[in-house]
Amino acid sequence: MTPAEEYLAFYSELGLTLSQWANVEHSLSDLVVAAVGSREKKTVLVGFFSIENFRSKLQFANNLIMSACSETGHLAKWQRLKTKAERLASRRNAVAHRTVVVFSSGVSGRRYALVEWLEFRQSISAEKPRVSSTKPPSGSLCLRDLIQIRYDFFELTVALRNLADEMQGRSPDFMATPKTPPSVAEVRRLLHTIIGASNPKRSKKK
Question: How distant is the alpha carbon of residue 125 from its chain centre?
């Protein structure tokens, strides 16, 4: 994967990952409505989406679900999902708030990284450009890390929707299985497939 290809792949994946988190929040709101009943839908959704902080949204959801739901099986599943959502919220914050640093001499797939601010500040001084040729510090999030986080967000989205279906007496329509990120070479092939599909002239030449 060339630096230019990695630039496109990294920023594309960054956007996809953040967009997938929005689906997590929408699925959580659907679950709360399923727990309290559709007659309270408007009130619940106004309250839910008036809260800006996700951890506060999660607490709001937990309070309503625990008070409205009496099925012990559903409550047990909810507690597991709540724990998972708390863990993944920290990953979302890392994706949203870390600094992107370019490691121009890094290996393919690790030239672009989301680095914690303190790590970034310690690695390069303010007088130097925000580009380093060294490898990303431990704990940085690179291309395949972002893909894994997006997969985890998707799995949580599906699990929340499935529990909402169960609470409403419906069978879940879809099951998400844990996935591992593709290799850098596979990401490169997918990138070229997307670029080719969006460029008819290039596709014809092939």
Answer: 31
Tell me how far apart the alpha carbons of residues 68 and 62 are, in angstroms, rounded to a whole number: 10
Residue boundaries of the structural domains of the chain = 3-97+142-195
Q: Find out whether 75 and 61 touch, Cβ atoms under 8 Å.
A: no
The amino acid present at 77, given as its one-letter code, is K
Q: Are 92 and 74 in contact (CB under 8 A)?
A: no
Q: What is the pTM of this model?
A: 0.86
With both helix axes pointing from N to C terminus, report the angle between 3-36 and 143-167 in degrees, rounded to the nearest 10: 20
Q: Are 62 and 192 in contact (CB under 8 A)?
A: no
Q: Which residues make Cβ contacts (< 8 Å) with residue 128, sequence separation at least 6?
A: none
For residues 24 and 42, give the distance between their C-alpha atoms in angstroms, rounded to a whole number: 19
Query: Which strands form 112-115's sheet, in the order they lie side by side?
Result: 112-115, 99-103, 131-132
| Neighbour tally for 127: CB within 10 Å | 5
3-state SS class at 113: strand
Tokens 């490169």 correspond to: 188
- pLDDT tens digit string along 1-13? 999 999 999 999 9
